[in-house]
Design brief:
The protein is 27% helix and 7% strand. It is an alpha+beta fold.
Length: 113
């Protein structure tokens, strides 16, 4: 594989502006909610496998790990008091996305950074 270099823009301002404009206009955002929900799934699952240093089997319907209960602790986090958001887990994938990411087996034997 050949190394490639290019210029990119990771400035989140255009996405924030689009989101705020769509709140006002009720139009669809540039990135729909489902895509925004599903796009980090592989990275999140891989990160959990790395942190637990284990294989993790994910269930796309429940968005939980089935073979490693300790891995599920990485799906949410606790806020400092007095801040709270509720019991909303960080999601992994959706059942309609299971053909390419959900319901898969992921592993990592790499040491934690």
């Amino acid at each position: 594989m050949e190394e490639r270099h290019g210029k990119g823009n990771i400035d989140p301002a255009p996405h924030a502006r689009n989101f705020l404009d769509c709140i006002r206009s009720r139009e669809q955002t540039n990135c729909d909610t489902l895509t925004g929900h599903l796009s980090p799934a592989a990275t999140l699952i891989g990160n959990v496998a790395l942190r637990t240093r284990s294989y993790v089997d994910s269930d796309a319907k429940t968005e939980r790990f089935t073979n490693n209960p300790a891995a599920n602790q990485w799906l949410s986090y606790k806020y400092r008091a007095p801040y709270k958001l509720g019991d909303y887990p960080l999601s992994l994938s959706r059942a309609d996305f299971s053909c390419s990411i959900g319901g898969g087996r992921w592993c990592s034997s790499s040491p934690m950074p």
